[in-house]
Every structure is written in structure tokens, then in C-alpha cells.
Amino acid sequence: MARPRSDIRHRIVLAARKRFLAEGVDGASMRAIASDAKTSLGMITYYFASKDELFLAVLEDVYEKLLHDLEARLAGPAPVRERLRAAILRVGGATDDEVEVIRLVLREALVSSSRLDRVIERFRRGHLPLMVATIADAQREGLVRADVPLPLAAISIFATGILPQLARRFAAERVPLIVDMIPAGDALVDLALDTALRGVGAAPSSPSGRENREAAKEKKKRAKREN
Predict the structure, then answer these.
(1) Residue 195 CB: number of other CB atoms within 10 A?
(2) E strand or H helix that includes residue 215
């Protein structure tokens, strides 16, 4: 019994992802991808007009599900902080397949401006409007400073919320000392979100700000005495 064509397309996308990760988009052979997918080169060209089209299909294969999840979290009726937390937790807990494609997209964006343009265009129609709209809600509610431009606020909050989770995940085997210093799970998400919304610098007039200044003065005094 012949395989359904939709199955062939999916096998091509999976084979392409592995080849692209190992060899890069430009370095991967379409014939090798066809062989890995157990199909013909003609079937690849039937579904995908170019290698760049195949690259975008690899992205879409995981991005569609991620976007659906983000829409459910960011566009819902929950308070803004809860929506931000849910979205940050979802992206920070990306599946292995999603992380692989994120790595691929970041790498290829550095070597091909045309691919970067198409990826940005896809994101512009995908999660970027959701992020900006959510931060706009946060500004209206007074959760985020109104004088910060929306794109800057969105990038700052989501990067601060998501990157520590990914860093902890990738450092688990390579830099275990860092992992021991960073909380995990919900505690990390809450701390990262608080950091994004409040900042890491202590205000000069706050108790913690005064304590920091006094500690710095005491440190200088000790250094002078030791010298």
C-alpha cells in the first residue's frame, strides 16, 4: 500500500531538519535529504520550490504549535501578569524539537539575509503582535513604564523572562556551578518576571539602595586598610 503524500511531506521536513542542523542549509544536499526521507528528489521539488522553502517548512513544522500555545496564553482574559508568566513559562519550557529549530533559525539568520527577512516576516505575522499587544496592556495597567517604547519593553521583558530558563537548561551539563546558583521551574519564572518588571538596580532612595552604597563604602575602607 502506497504511503499518503502528506506522510511523504512530513518525512521530507524531518529529514531536512536533521541535515540542516548537521550541515547548514547551504551545505545540505537535497539528494541526501531525499535519501534520508526514503523518497525521490522529484517529490521534494513537488512540495518545495527551493531549499529556502524547505527551510521555512522546517520552521513552520514546530512554530505553528508554539504560536497556537502563545495565542492561548497571551490573548486570553487572564490578568496581564498571569498572561506574561504563562507565555514565558511555555517558551522557556520549549520541547527538544523546538529548541533544535530555534538553534537552526538563529544560525541561518546570521549567514543569509534573505532567510532572515522571511523569518522576520513570519514572526511579524505570528507572535510579535501578540507580545507587543500584551505589553501595551501592561502599560495601560501601570505594570510597565509608559515612557518605554513598546518594542523595547516587549524585547526586554520576554528576553529577561525566557533566556535564564534556556541558559539553565543548556548549562546543566556544561557549567553545573551556574545551574546550582539559579532556581528552577516556577521559582525561576517568577524571579525572572519580577526582574523584568522591576529591574535589577536598587533605587537610590530605597533601603536596599542605601545598603548597597554603605556596603560599597565599607568595602573601599577595608581595601585601603589592607593596602
Answers:
(1) 14
(2) helix 207-226
Contacts of 150 (CB under 8 A, 6+ apart): 132, 135, 136, 139
Read off the pLDDT of residues 182-216 as tens digits, 9 standing for 90 and up.
Answer: 888 899 999 999 998 887 555 555 444 455 456 55
* CB count in 10 Å sphere of residue 215: 10
CATH 1.10.8 given to domain 61-199? no
Task: Give the position of cell 565599607.
Answer: 218
Q: Domain ranges in the chain?
A: 1-48, 61-199
- Predicted structure pTM score: 0.77
Q: What type of residue is 71?
A: E
Name the fold adopted by 1-48.
Answer: Arc Repressor Mutant, subunit A (1.10.10)
The pLDDT of residue 215: 57
